[in-house]
Design a protein that fits this description.
Strand order of the largest sheet: 1-5-4-3-2
Low-confidence stretches: none
Distance between the termini: 23 Å
Oligomer: single chain
Number of domains: 1
Mean pLDDT: 96
Largest sheet: 5 strands, antiparallel
Amino acid sequence: MTRIELIRSAVDVLSLDHQFDGIEFIAVLNWKEIPKAYKIDKTIILNTNRVNVYKLDTKMVVEIVGLGLFQIS
């Protein structure tokens, strides 16, 4: 899957929950794992996708299981 397809798929998943309506920025992260400084904020199920939301100060990273890691703001 190309990066633009990953972003499109991530937007499709995140658009299912109104808490993500204000997103202005989304980027694919090439991390193998989330740094330990990030703390899990919540886990939600959107359709058939599990989404783990991690936060570090004002930075937010979402892990869409099966798709990857994305930084959003």
